[in-house]
Structures are given as C-alpha cells and as structure tokens.
Design brief:
binds adenosine-5'-diphosphate; binds magnesium ion; 6-stranded parallel beta sheet
C-alpha cells in the first residue's frame, strides 16, 4: 500500500480536483484506491454534496451518504475559517497527535493499493493552535504531491512550499500545476518557468477540465508502489 499526501501551495488551488482526477486515473489503471480528507472547514451540513468529501467519494464511485462522508472526512467544521479557528467556534480543540494518529490508523487499515490523503489549505496552513499541515506530513512520513495554481504569484507560492517540504525531509512525488481561472499568465510559459526553477522535481501541468496528464502521475505512483513492495 502506498500513501500519497495531496498538499497545496495555497487554498483553492485545485487539491480536491487533482485528487479526484488522480483517483480516476489510478482506477482506470486497474488500481484500488481509497481517500481521506484530513480536516474540512466551511462544511455546510445542508449541502454535503458540495464538500470535498463528496467530490472524493464521487471519484471513488461511492455515493455521498452521511456514513460515507463521516468515513472519508470525520473532522468537519462549519465556519469557513482555518480549521483550528472553525473548530474553536464549535468548542473543539484539535491536536497534532490526534490528526497524525487518524492518518496512521487510516494508512494501517487501508485495504487498497493507494491511499490519497488531502490536506487542508496550504502546506503551512494551521491545523491546530500550534501545528500546520506540514507537521502532519512530516509525522506521517507520507510522500507528497504538491498542488499549486497558475495565477500571477503562484510560482513563488509553489517554490516556497516545495522548499519548505524539502527542508523538512518530505519526499516530493510531483508538483501539479492546476490552471487557474483567467486572468492568469500564459499557462505553458508558467509551466516551463516552474519546471526550470524546480529542475529536480516532476512537474505536471493540468489545464482546466482536462485531467489527462494525471494518468502519467498515476502510473508513476503505481510504479513506485511496486518497486517499494519488491524492495
Ligand atoms: N484544472 C482544473 N480544471 C477545472 N476546474 C478546476 C481545476 N483546478 C481547480 N478547479 C476548480 O477550482 C475550484 C477550487 O479547486 P479545489 O480542488 O476545490 O481546491 P482546493 O482543494 O485546493 O481548495 C473547484 O471548483 C475546482 O473544481
Ligand atoms: Mg479541497
């Protein structure tokens, strides 16, 4: 079993869209996949179908029943704030040990070939009063796919996130640049610039509504999983 953490260079950059595309690509390659959403804020209980959990479930071919939503994303908070701030509004204090243990339990229990864990916000978005998504990734030791956008300013966000992941010893599986809505600079040029600046990383570009480049990443993940099982 191989776990891949889907982290963001920021919020709303395409983590869920890329995770769903990757799930579909992995399934099309014949792999079994499960997914987990670490924590969600801005969750509207009246509209579960709009949640990240529902998008991930749809890609997994599962209906967004209350049980399925609870299973894929047990920590959901209503206010559209950072997770610890949203949790605070509901009288809940989040702890790093609990978040890491949820990831570990999920990894240990996974009966699939691949488990994708979607983070919340960006790499250093807070998930507790004194820890960020990065601390969860480091503690869970999961290879990571970094997702960023292509809006003006995205290059710095992506490079900063990639640098901090590397500095904490996280294995960067790939960087996925998900095309931002207009107005955004030329996508191919942005992709070339990012690839040049991140020359040791695999950089995958996905245009709006075209997840096809994620097939290559799915194959890479499965290839790595086979070789790590043989090792
Ligand atoms: N490459 C893309 N093509 C089409 N829609 C996209 C793409 N990337 C992101 N989106 C859309 O942009 C919005 C934000 O993306 P989302 O995956 O929810 O971001 P995040 O999970 O990082 O917060 C969603 O409506 C999503 O469907
Ligand atoms: Mg998301």
């Amino acid at each position: 079993m191989r776990t891949v953490f889907i982290a963001g260079a920021g919020t709303d950059v395409g983590k869920t869209w890329v995770a769903a595309g990757l799930i579909s690509a992995l399934r099309a390659e014949g792999a079994s996949v499960d997914a987990f959403k670490l924590i969600a804020s801005g969750y509207d209980p009246a509209r579960p179908e709009d949640s990240d959990a529902a998008v991930l479930l749809a890609a997994l071919g599962r209906a967004p029943t209350p049980e399925a939503i609870e299973d894929i994303c047990p920590l959901r908070f209503i206010e559209p704030l950072s997770p610890p701030a949203a949790a605070r509004r509901e009288g809940v204090t989040l702890s790093l040990a609990d978040l890491v243990s949820r990831c570990r339990q999920r990894m240990a229990a996974a009966a699939t070939e691949v488990l994708l864990i979607e983070g919340a916000g960006g790499v250093m978005s807070p998930v507790t009063d004194d820890a960020t998504v990065l601390d969860v990734i480091v503690a869970a030791r999961t290879p990571t796919v970094l997702v960023g956008g292509s809006y003006l300013g995205a290059i710095s966000h992506i490079l900063t996130a990639a640098d901090v992941l590397a500095s904490r010893g996280v294995k960067l599986e790939a960087v996925v640049v998900s095309e931002s809505l207009a107005p955004a600079p030329d996508f191919d040029e942005t992709l070339r610039d990012i690839s040049r600046l991140l020359k040791d990383s695999t950089v995958v570009g996905v245009r709006r509504d075209d997840p096809r480049p994620l097939t290559g990443l799915a194959r890479r993940i499965l290839g790595a999983s086979l070789s790590s099982e043989r090792a």
